[in-house]
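<instruction>
Derive C-alpha cells from the sequence
<data>
Labelled lines for chain and fold
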Amino acid sequence: MTAAVLITNPSDDLLIVHPSKDDAPWQLPGGIVEQGESPLDAVRREGREELGLDLDVREYDLFAVEWLQATRLGRRNRFAFLFAGPVLRPTDTEGITLQREELDAWRWATRAEAESMLHPAIAARIVGPLQTPGSAVYRETRHEGTL
C-alpha cells in the first residue's frame, strides 16, 4: 500500500515534491504504508518525515483509492490511498524542512503543471475538486496481457 496527500494553497495550487533520485518525476508527499500502520497514519508520518509538517489529515479527507494490478511477474497488486490534505498559507510553508535523503525540492504547481510534472498514474488520481471531503473516488488500473 501507498498513501499520499494533496496539499493545496489558497490559490488551489498543489504542493509537489521532487525525489533525490536522478531523473525521478515529481511526486505528491507520501510513501509506503509500513507494517502495522494505517494509510492515514502513513500520510501523517510522511508529512512529518518528508516536510517537517504536522498535517491535520482525517478519515473523512479520503480523496481516492486505487487498486493497481502488478506490472511484472513477482510483483504484487497494490492499493494507493490519496487524501485531501490541508490548505497551507505562506506562513505555514516557512516551516517546511525537507528530508534530504528522500527529497531535494518542493514547489507549488498549478493543476495543469502538476498533471504534466507528476507520473501519469499519479496525475490520473487527481480528478474533480481538490478539497471536497466525503467524495472519495475508487479507480482500478489494469495492465491486460502484461504478466
User: Anything to note?
Assistant: Residues 21 and 102 are 8 Å apart (CA to CA). The chain has a mean pLDDT of 87. The chain is about 20% helix and 30% strand. Residues 2-141 form a domain with the Nucleoside Triphosphate Pyrophosphohydrolase fold (CATH 3.90.79.10).
